Amino acid sequence: MLVGGKHFFENDDPYLIAKKALRVNLSDLASMGAEPLGYLLGLALPDKNFDPDQWLSPFVEGLKDDQDKYHFNLWGGDTVSTTGPITVSVTAIGQAGNTVNLTRSGANTGDDIYVSGTLGDAAAGLLVLKEKMDPIKFEYLIKRYHLPEPRIELGKALSGIATSMMDISDGLLGDISHICRHSKVGAEIKVKKIPVSIALGNLLATKADYSSLIWSGGDDYELLFTTSPDKDQVIKELSEQLAIKLTKIGKITKGKKAMILDDEGAEIKYGKRGFSHF
Amino acid sequence: MLVGGKHFFENDDPYLIAKKALRVNLSDLASMGAEPLGYLLGLALPDKNFDPDQWLSPFVEGLKDDQDKYHFNLWGGDTVSTTGPITVSVTAIGQAGNTVNLTRSGANTGDDIYVSGTLGDAAAGLLVLKEKMDPIKFEYLIKRYHLPEPRIELGKALSGIATSMMDISDGLLGDISHICRHSKVGAEIKVKKIPVSIALGNLLATKADYSSLIWSGGDDYELLFTTSPDKDQVIKELSEQLAIKLTKIGKITKGKKAMILDDEGAEIKYGKRGFSHF
Fold first, then answer.
1. Domain CATH number, residue B33
2. Counting one residue from A and one from B, how many pairs have CB atoms under 8 Å apart?
3. Which residues lie closer than 8 Å to A191 by C-beta, 6 or more apart?
4. Same domain flag for A71 and A199
5. Dihedral (CA of A101, A102, A103, A109) sign
6. Which DSSP helix (H) or strand (E) runs through B158?
7. Rounded Cα–Cα distance for residues B222 and B239 (Å)
8. How many domains does chain A have?
9. What's the pLDDT tens digit per position in B75-96?
C-alpha cells in the first residue's frame, strides 16, 4: 500500500508512482522466487482539489509500460474516493515453483550472506530530493529511488539454491535481522564488503555522515539471500549469466543477533539516521 | 476498498467494519460461484488522533469471527500510516469450479431474472443512521447495512444453472443494467415483484418517498441472476434447500435497456434519490 505524503510525494509524476507501486510488489514476488502472473489494484483518489483525468492518464501509462515489461496483467480492482491522500493498494499474484527454501527461516550457521546490486542508493535518492541537492548530479540515485528493479529472474534462479531470501525494503540491517529471527541464527556482515554504487560513493565523499544509509537505508528492493558455502561457483555463474552483481557480504553465525562489523571487526552501532520510507 | 467517511462512519465499531470489509469481498466471490480460500489485507491507519491498539483489537476480533464463519484465511497484507481516513483494502481469493456462465454476459432474451433475499434494506439502514431515526425500531435495517450476508452457498449452487450473475452492490437497476450491457439485451422488472422486507415495508409506510431505495439502493449484496425459463422448478428446490428466498422479478428482453415497470406496465423513471454508499 503506497500512501501520498508517506511513500511518495503527492506531486510526484503519476507515471513513476504507478511503476513503483507495481515494482515493489513484483519485488515481493521475486523474493519468493515466483513468476509474476497478475495483480489487483485498489485506488483511493482525493475527492477535492484533484483532477482525476490529469492524474490517471500518466498513471495508467506507467501501469501499461510495466505490465508489458514484466508480462504482468491487471486482473481487477476498485476505485474509490477519499478525503485523504492518494492511496494505491496493489495485490500481486505469482506462481512459485520449487521454493521450499525461499522463506526467511531457512538460513543455517555457516551460510554465506549475499546481496544483489548495490545498497543505499534509493534512500540516498530520497535524501537528495528532500534536501534539494543537485538533481542532475545525483540523477542515478533519484532514479533508484523512483524505479526499483525487481529481481525476478534472479529470484526464480535462486529457488533451490538459496537457503533463505527476502527483498531489502527496510534496510539491510533490519532485513537480515528478520532472517536471523525467523531462522534462529545470528549474522556478521563486513561493512567494507557491502556493495556501494559510484554515485553513492560520490555523495558519501562529501557527506560522510550519511554512510549509515548503506545498511539502514530502505527501498532498494535488492535481494538478500543466504547459501551454503559450497555454492560459491554457482552464484558466480548466476551473476555472470544474469549480468547482476552478487556480492558476498558476510556469514550466518550461531548467535542470535545481526551485526555490521567495521574494518577492525567491531560492531557498528545502528546509525543515527534510522530509515523511514519518507 | 473501504474508506472512512465514505463507506463507513469513522466512529463505527471496528468489529463491524472488519466484518463488512470481508463480507463485501466474499459477496464478490459468491457472485462468481467461487469457494472462498483466503485474503490479503491492506490497512492504512491515521497517523494522528488515533489509537491503533484500541481500534485494532475489535477489528481483529471481527476478522477472526468471520474467518471462522466463512472458512476464510488471512494470507498476508500490509499496514501503513496515512494523513487521511482509515482505509481498508481487501483482496479476496477464491476457487471457481464450473463457472463458465457465471459472468455478466450470458443473459439471453426470454431468461427469467431472479434476486435472492430482499432489496433496499441496507440503503434504508444507512438512511436510518444518517437521519437519526429510531435505531431500535429499525434495528433490522441497520444490521442489514452493517452486516451483509454473502450468498456463497447459493452462488456455488447456481454455477451451471444461472446464465448470468452478479451481486447487487450499486442497486438493482444499476446492476441489472450492467448485465444488459454485457449481455447485449434489455430487461423488464416489475416493481411489485421486487421482494421487500417487513422492516422496509414499515419504513416506507411512513416515508413513501424512499420507495426508490428498493431498486436504486445499494449495499444489499444479494445475488441477481438470470436463468432460462425451464429452470423454475430447480430454483424453487434450491430456495427450499438453502432456505434463501429467491424471487422471479422480471424477464430479459430483446431491447437494450433495463426498465422497472409499475403496475400499469409503464416505466418508472429513476428515482430522485440516486444511491451513493454514503
1. 3.30.1330.10
2. 74
3. A214, A215, A260, A261, A262, A263, A268
4. no
5. positive
6. helix B152-158
7. 14
8. 2
9. 999 999 999 999 999 999 999 8
Which residue in A2, A40, A82 is closest to B3 by CB distance?
A82
Residue A41, helix vs strand vs coil: strand
The DSSP symbol for A97 reads S
Do both B134 and B81 map to the same domain? no
User: Cβ contact (<8 Å) for A43 and B1?
Assistant: yes
CA angle, residues A207, A211, A217, in degrees to nearest 5: 120
Which H/E stretch holds residue B141?
helix B139-146
Convert the pLDDT of each residue in A4-45 to its tens digit.
999 999 899 999 999 999 999 999 999 999 999 999 999 999
- Note down the domain range covering B118: 112-261
Q: State whether B116 and B89 are in the same domain.
A: no
**B215: nearest Cα among B249, B148, B260, B256:** B260
Which residue, among B12, B167, B147, has the nearest Cα to B69 in the 3D structure? B147
ipTM of the complex: 0.84
Which phi and psi angles does A41 have, rounded to 5°?
Answer: -120, 120
Cα B119 to Cα B219: distance, rounded to the nearest angstrom: 9
- With cut-offs at 50, 70 and 90, classify the pLDDT of residue B256: confident
CB-nearest to B82 from A3, A43, A81 is A3
Question: What is the DSSP code string of B25-43?
Answer: HHHHHHTTTEEEEEEEEEE
Are A118 and A172 in contact by the 8 Å Cβ rule? The answer is: no
Mutation site, A48, A89, A169, A170, interface B, largest B CB count within 10 A: A89
